[in-house]
Amino acid sequence: MKLVGKRLVSAMLGLLLVLSLVACGGDVTVQDYVETDEFRQEMESIKPQVEAQGLKVEVTAQGNTMTYTYTYLDAFSDEQLEIIATNLALMADEMEAILKEVYDSAAEAVSKPDEVVVVMTYCSADGQVLYSQSYPS
Predict the structure, then answer these.
(1) What is the pLDDT of residue 14?
(2) What is the CATH number of domain 2-135?
């Protein structure tokens, strides 16, 4: 199931975030971590798994806000997109649990843990936002 794969990807990224940032020291932000070679290499290794689920993933950061943007590779009709958006909203509790795992890991590793925000956004193939959720909300 797609959710299990996403949960695994998020947990792995969270663990890598903790390990890499703890070693850095100083005033460390989530953005600092996303810009490291280690993070980029890890994302490259995860992308084929996400693509096998019909999505592509891009992770961006600004300060202590990390955004996972999942974009569907296939184009869908407006009706299908509405169904997808509805189903994503119904999975809000599961997504919040994933976001919390990544948030907890990041908050332990950065200099200002109370400023960490993790966002997960799903978009259609043409870039239309279907669903977005953040933690803390």
Answers:
(1) 55
(2) 3.30.300
